[in-house]
Structure formats: structure tokens, C-alpha cells
Write a structure and sequence with these properties.
The protein has about 280 residues and is mostly helical. The chain is built from 12 helices and no strands.
């Protein structure tokens, strides 16, 4: 077993544990309440798999990205929401009842739409729809559902094991980050002189701004959750998709890795702005 095989196993543990932790943390009553809002569900789909990929595609046309970096940007545009999404909603003083529903819909949507849209959006990649869908079903959707089912039927157990599972996910995220820098530091260093970082920041800023400023009937606290969910990315799902691609270019992987710090920075700034908006609204009323 070589270092690349070990790396894939570590990524798998990181993926499963983080998605399971997300499922264990979902508040079932709040999630069910939000899931009854058909407008909210439709907007998740529109922002996540219509507007988001359209923004990414447009950026690849106006910014002189290398082909691997462009492919990486398109790939990450298909997987909204991150494990730290609920924390960002809390910081933004957003509607937490919508956060649980957002996680469920975004995860299911990623499993459904990512395999279907990758062959269409990213030309030149050798991949089959089932090759992408199968690991997403097993490593992304299944852990989330198992965690959520435990939360629904055995809440005391979920509350007990949830923090442990989350710590495991965090630990393997750190291990993944260290190994990534070790294995791909040359490729990541080369991204500094390219347009990769700027393109990602523009993507996160654009999808966050639009999904917050265009209301479509949602309350401000609901829009902040929507915007933060679209700003952050399901890095675990993108990792799974990357390993399902035949002979992917390392440049694609570099774009995936850059998501972690860049999306977090933009989300923290956005959450602070959204929280101030809420405070202003409270004062004026």
C-alpha cells in the first residue's frame, strides 16, 4: 500500500465521519418544519445547481484559468454547504430551523445533480455517471441519513456520540490537510501565481451576495442561511467525486483543497455582515 492509497482511506474516514456528524446534529422538528416550505426547497435547487454552476462557468470564460483549474471550479460549484455551515448560521443570527433542512436538501441534491452535471459541464473528463453517483450515495448520503435516523429515534445516543464523531471528523480533516500539503505542495504553490485563488473568491462572493440580496419572498434570516450554505462547499462530496474521475489532473485537486480556507474566510466575513444587518433591523423596529 503506497501513500496515495493511505491518503484515500483517510479522506474516506474524513468524509464519512463529517457527514455522519452533520446528520447527528440536525434538529428533526426544525428540519421538518423547513422542509414543508416548498419555496425554500426550490430556491436551494435553483441557487445550488442552476445559478451557482452558471456563475462558475461564466468565470471560466472571463478569467484565463488553466483547464484543470477551470474544471476544479466547475466541480466545486456543484456541491453546496459544509460541515461548519450551522456554526456560520449561528454567527449570522440566521434561521436555524432552515439550516437542518438546507443540509438535507443540499446533500441529496449534490448526490443527484453532481454526477449528472459533471460530464456536461466539464469537457474532457473520463467519467461515468454511476462511477460518481455510487461513492456519493455510500460515503455522503448514507452516513448523513444514518446520523439523522439515530437523531430522530435515539436522540440521547445521538447527543452522546455526536461530539465524538465530530471530533473524529475534525481530526481526519487535519490529517487530510497535512497529507495534502505534503503530497501536493508544488501544485498548490503554483496556484499562487495563477488566477485560481481569485476565481474562487469571486465565485464565493458572487453566489453569497446574490442569494442574500435577491429575496424571492424569504425573510432576511432565512436568506442569510441560504447565502452561507451557498458560500460554503461540501468538500467531502467533492473529494469523493474527484477520486471517481479517471486520471484527474492534480490541478483539479488543488482547486478543491483551496476551498477549505477560502470558503471559510468568505463565510466568516459574510456571517459578520449578516449579523449586523439583523442588529440594525432589531434597532429600527
Amino acid at each position: 500500500m503506497n501513500i496515495e492509497d493511505i491518503y484515500k482511506i483517510i479522506v474516506m474516514i474524513f468524509t464519512v465521519s463529517n457527514l455522519a456528524a452533520m446528520g447527528l446534529e440536525i434538529n428533526k422538528n426544525e428540519a421538518i418544519k423547513a422542509l414543508k416550505n416548498s419555496r425554500f426547497i426550490l430556491l436551494i435547487i435553483v441557487w445550488g445547481w442552476v445559478v451557482g454552476p452558471a456563475i462558475a462557468w461564466l468565470l471560466t470564460k472571463v478569467i484565463p484559468l488553466s483547464e484543470p483549474h477551470a474544471a476544479g471550479l466547475l466541480l466545486i460549484s456543484l456541491a453546496p454547504t459544509a460541515p461548519f455551515f450551522p456554526l456560520m448560521v449561528t454567527k449570522a443570527r440566521g434561521d436555524m430551523s432552515s439550516a437542518g433542512a438546507f443540509i438535507l436538501v443540499a446533500t441529496v441534491g449534490t448526490v443527484v445533480f453532481l454526477p449528472l452535471m459533471v460530464p456536461v459541464l466539464i469537457k474532457g473528463l473520463t467519467v461515468s455517471i454511476w462511477a460518481l453517483a455510487k461513492p456519493l450515495l455510500i460515503m455522503v448520503l448514507l452516513p448523513l441519513i444514518i446520523g439523522f435516523v439515530i437523531k430522530v429515534y435515539k436522540e440521547p445516543i445521538a447527543d452522546k456520540i455526536g461530539p465524538v464523531v465530530k471530533k473524529i471528523g475534525t481530526l481526519f480533516l487535519l490529517i487530510t490537510a497535512v497529507l495534502t500539503f505534503w503530497l501536493y505542495w508544488e501544485e498548490m504553490l503554483s496556484a499562487i501565481g495563477s488566477y485560481a485563488i481569485g476565481a474562487q473568491i469571486l465565485f464565493f462572493a458572487a453566489i453569497t451576495f446574490l442569494s442574500y440580496k435577491v429575496p424571492f419572498g424569504l425573510k432576511k434570516t432565512q436568506r442569510s442561511g441560504m447565502a452561507l450554505g451557498m458560500c460554503t462547499r461540501n468538500i467531502a462530496a467533492v473529494f469523493v467525486a474527484y477520486f471517481g474521475i479517471t486520471n484527474p489532473d492534480p490541478g483539479v485537486f488543488v482547486m478543491i483543497v483551496l476551498v477549505v480556507p477560502l470558503a471559510l474566510i468568505v463565510a466568516l466575513i459574510a456571517a459578520r455582515i449578516f449579523a449586523k444587518d439583523v442588529e440594525k433591523e432589531v434597532v429600527t423596529t
